[in-house]
Design a protein that fits this description.
Helix content: 25-40%
Oligomer: single chain
CATH topology: Deoxyribonuclease I, Chain A
Number of helices: 6
Structural class: alpha+beta
Strand content: 25-35%
Radius of gyration: 17 Å
Number of domains: 1
Largest sheet: 6 strands, mixed
CATH superfamily: Endonuclease/exonuclease/phosphatase
CATH architecture: 4-Layer Sandwich
Strand order of the largest sheet: 3-4-2-1-14-13
Shape: globular
Order of helices and strands: EHEHEEEEEHEHEHEEEHEE
DNA sequence: ATGACTGAGCATCTCAGA
């Protein structure tokens, strides 16, 4: 099983990139983030032509997630259980394929909206931890992929790329990420590549890409039985060098 | 030489991203 996640920074701007990438990599499921449109504007037919069904959780202008699947899936949730029902932000999609639960997330950045914005990020992370714990208690396979907006350690960003107070790196954010690991999830990329740069994001500004100033903020977390069968896990750096790229690249994991 | 980005929207600027 090949699972992938990609923050595309507008699906309408990146439609052709995603089509070419699906043809090249052929994942079973690709989770998308920041599609930045509502479901009717999502170019589902382009992907259906390649054999991928689109399940879309959209909103106007901001956020928005989707799952493209070439295997049979059923949608279980389109919002994160435990987040207030009046939250209209499209950041979560939970699907099942066979007995495996796969979740795609776009975790709040936390740098905007002052104290309330950051509190929302932490509340969202705690709700995700509780949802994951519930699913792990059922002892069935679970994978969570997406843009977590967390650099888990100092090895996950170029030195000086962000101030230590930034919502992507500050201690409370990292503690909330570690809490996801403590309940039994495995960080797939670090499980196979414990050291070194594994950037998944390069800012558009300040020539970050040619200087290789990046962050690792897109992750794949696996339950124990999936982690035991993990055979590869890498960001696809090639995509950042394409014309008009997203600022994120895909992350791909393969499970035997 | 202290520079410098991208996208959506009701838009000629603001907000958000990270």
């Amino acid at each position: 099983m090949k699972l992938a996640t990609w923050n595309v920074n507008s699906i309408r701007q990146r439609e052709n990139h995603v089509v070419r990438w699906l043809e090249r990599v052929q994942p079973d499921i690709l989770f998308l983030q920041e599609i930045k449109c509502e479901a009717p504007q999502f170019p589902a037919s382009r992907f259906e032509a390649l054999g991928y069904k689109a399940d879309v959780v959209g909103q106007k202008a901001y956020n928005g997630v989707a799952a493209l699947s070439r295997v049979p899936v059923e949608v279980v949730h389109t919002a994160l259980p435990g987040v207030p029902a009046d939250d209209a932000q499209a950041r979560y999609i939970e699907i099942r394929t066979g007995g495996t639960t796969c979740i795609g997330i776009y975790l709040p950045n936390g740098n905007s909206g002052a104290d309330a914005g950051y509190a929302y990020k932490l509340a969202w992370m705690e709700a995700l931890r509780q949802r994951a714990a519930t699913l792990l208690d059922a002892d069935e396979p679970l994978a969570i992929l997406g843009d977590f907006n967390v650099c888990p350690t100092d090895e996950d960003l170029s030195p000086g790329a962000l101030p230590p107070t930034d919502a992507l790196v500050c201690p409370a954010t990292r503690a909330a990420y570690r809490a996801l690991l403590w309940i039994g999830l495995t960080d797939a990329l670090r499980a196979l590549h414990p050291r070194g740069k594994l950037w998944t994001f390069w800012d558009y500004q300040a020539a970050a890409w040619p200087r290789d100033i990046g962050l690792r903020i897109d992750h794949a977390l696996l339950s124990p039985t999936l982690a035991e069968r993990l055979t590869s896990a890498l960001p696809d750096r090639k995509e950042r060098g394409e014309e008009q790229p997203s600022d994120h690249v895909p992350v791909v994991v393969e499970i035997d």
